[in-house]
Amino acid sequence: MTGDRPGAIGGAPSAPHPIPPGQRRVQGWPVSHYGPVPRFRPERWDLRVFGATAAGEERAWSFDDLTALPHITVVADLHCATGPTSTDHEWFGIAATTLLDLARPAPEVTHVMAWAEYGYGANLRLADFTAERTLLATHHNGEPLTAEHGFPLRLVVPHLYGYKSAKWLRGIEYMTEDRRAPYGVWSAPSSPCSRSP
Predict the structure, then answer these.
(1) pLDDT tier for residue 128 given thresholds of 50, 70 and 90
(2) Which whole-number Å values give the CA distances from 35 to 32, 75, 150, in the listed order?
């Protein structure tokens, strides 16, 4: 899982490069969340896709089922809406488009809600969820995600601020219109679904 291996989207980690205005480069990978880190219980854990599916049915995968799906590698920076930017993260996981192929949205779907533990939700335009570099990450820089950074599954949407990359992902809801996301207490509930750095 190296950034320069064939098939990595976004290229190899690079020399320092420009970051968006208003952001400040930080070393390492700061932890940002409110509340306790959830405990992973594989016998109870699943990822559900529900809402306005083309088939009108909910789909669910165990963690083992997900890890058997094709994977991609994406190299990208992570921008926090409060200002920090950490660069050259190597993410490994399932492309969001793979999930969409397995559980197709109805034609009228325009948005998704990414649901995580503790009722956290991140609303996204369908176009952001289907972007080439959007993935459901299981690994970071060649190692399984740590619990503090979202193990077992984290949504990664590199072109949007980090609060849209929900940690501890549990479900994707297809929606036919945008809806306010139930954010954690640290995020502003009026944040637009397409906010990017």
Answers:
(1) very high
(2) 10, 28, 13
